[in-house]
């Protein structure tokens, strides 16, 4: 079955960095784009980033552009999200899911899993 396990979250101060991992099972990430989404308390879920492993096309939300970098390791069937210069407004539960995306479009396919908590203190 299709499963994606997000990990690597934690508590950091503003300006710090975290690297999130999304380990996929039941499919190969070479066959699907993988997107990162987040949901903060009192806010709706939003798309953050996405990568198409076969062609390297990436998507970044305007709010994270220049601070976050998405990458993939097909040998490990894992997608990463390097988050630098973190801000308190980045605080959220982060999820990964198979997605459709281009450089300016992201649609998740709703295989959310448990997600991983990122908390950024001011």
**What is the general shape?**
globular
H/E topology pattern: EEEEEEEEEEE
Low-confidence stretches: none
Secondary structure tally: strands: 11
User: Could you estimate the helical fraction of the residues in percent?
Assistant: under 10%
The amount of beta strand, in percent, is over 45%
| Biggest sheet character | 7 strands, mixed
Q: How would you state the average pLDDT, rounded? A: 95
Summarize the structure.
The protein is 0% helix and 56% strand.
Task: Describe it.
The structure is a single chain. A hairpin with a 4-residue loop joins strand 5 (46-52) and strand 6 (57-60). The protein contains no helices and eleven strands. Strands 2, 4, 5, 6, 9, 10 and 11 form a seven-stranded mixed beta sheet that branches. A four-stranded antiparallel beta sheet has the order 1-3-8-7, with no helix packed on it. It is globular, with a radius of gyration of 13 Å. The N and C termini lie far apart (40 Å). It is mainly beta and 122 residues long.
């Amino acid at each position: 079955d299709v499963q994606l396990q997000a990990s690597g979250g934690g508590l950091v101060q503003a300006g710090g960095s975290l690297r999130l991992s999304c380990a996929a099972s039941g499919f190969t990430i070479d066959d699907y784009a993988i997107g990162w989404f987040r949901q903060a308390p009192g806010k709706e879920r939003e798309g953050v980033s996405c990568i198409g492993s076969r062609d390297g096309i990436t998507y970044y939300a305007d709010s994270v552009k220049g601070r976050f970098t998405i990458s993939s390791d097909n040998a490990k069937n894992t997608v990463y999200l390097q988050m630098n210069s973190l801000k308190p407004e980045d605080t959220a539960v982060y999820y990964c899911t198979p997605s459709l995306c281009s450089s300016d479009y992201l649609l998740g396919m709703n295989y959310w899993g448990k997600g991983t908590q990122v908390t950024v203190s001011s």
